[in-house]
Specification:
Elements: H1 3-26, H2 33-39, H3 44-50, H4 54-70, H5 83-100, H6 102-113, H7 121-142, H8 148-172, H9 181-194
Helix pairs in contact: 1-4, 1-6, 4-6, 4-7, 5-6, 5-7, 7-8, 8-9
C-alpha cells in the first residue's frame, strides 16, 4: 500500500464514521451532501471522490458502522455454559453494546423505519443478519419447541426501542421506580421463554 492509498483509506474510514453519526442523528432525509461534507470537513467534490452520492454513503457508512460495532459480539459459547446461559450471555452482551454505543441503536432504528431510495435489505444483510441469525440459533438450541424467529424478532424490536420507550414511561409514570431497561428486558424475555 502506498502512502497516498493509506491516507485515502484513513480518510474514507473517517468519512464513514462521521456520516454514520450524521445519519443516526438526523436520518437519511435530514442530511444533504453539503451537510455530510461539512461534518466530514471536506468539500462536496471531495466527498464525491469517495462515493457515488448520498445513497451510496448511507449504505456504506451505515453498514460499516453496524458491522464494526457488532463484529466481536458473536463468539463460540463456553462449553461449560448451559444453552440458557449461552443465550442470555449473548443477549446481555448485545444490550450492553447498544448501551455503550447510542449511535448503534439509533442507526438500527433508522435503517428499519426510514424510507430511503435504497432498499434497507442490503444494509440488513451486511450488518444485522449475523447477530440475528446467531440469536435464532441460540434460542433454538435452548428451546427447540418454539418458533425462535418470532421470539428473536420481538426481543430485537424491544431492545432497539427500549431507551425511547423508557423515556415515555418515565414521563407517564414519574413516580414508578425505574428499573434498568436492559435488566427488565432480559427478565421479560427469560420469562416468556420459560413459559
Amino acid at each position: 500500500m502506498t502512502v497516498s492509498s493509506g491516507k485515502r483509506e484513513r480518510t474514507r474510514a473517517a468519512i464513514l464514521l462521521v456520516c454514520a453519526q450524521q445519519f443516526a442523528k438526523y436520518g437519511f432525509n435530514g442530511v444533504s451532501m453539503d451537510s455530510l461534507a461539512k461534518a466530514a470537513k471536506l468539500t462536496k467534490g471531495a466527498l464525491y471522490d469517495h462515493f457515488l452520492g448520498k445513497e451510496d454513503i448511507y449504505v456504506q457508512s451505515t453498514a460499516h458502522y453496524l458491522e464494526q460495532a457488532m463484529a466481536d459480539l458473536i463468539d463460540v459459547p463456553d462449553v461449560d455454559q448451559s444453552k440458557e446461559e449461552a443465550l442470555f450471555t449473548f443477549l446481555a452482551k448485545f444490550l450492553d453494546r447498544l448501551n455503550e454505543k447510542p449511535v448503534l441503536s439509533r442507526l438500527i432504528l433508522r435503517v428499519l423505519t426510514e424510507e430511503t431510495g435504497k432498499n434497507t435489505r442490503e444494509i440488513a444483510e451486511k450488518a444485522l443478519y449475523l447477530p440475528f441469525k446467531h440469536t435464532i440459533e441460540l434460542v433454538s438450541a435452548y428451546r427447540p419447541d418454539v418458533n425462535a424467529s418470532d421470539y428473536v424478532y420481538s426481543f430485537y424490536c424491544n431492545a432497539i426501542l427500549s431507551e425511547d420507550l423508557k423515556n415515555v414511561v418515565d414521563v407517564l409514570s414519574p413516580n414508578s421506580p425505574s428499573l434498568s431497561v436492559h435488566t427488565s428486558l432480559l427478565q421479560h424475555f427469560r420469562g416468556i421463554l420459560a413459559a
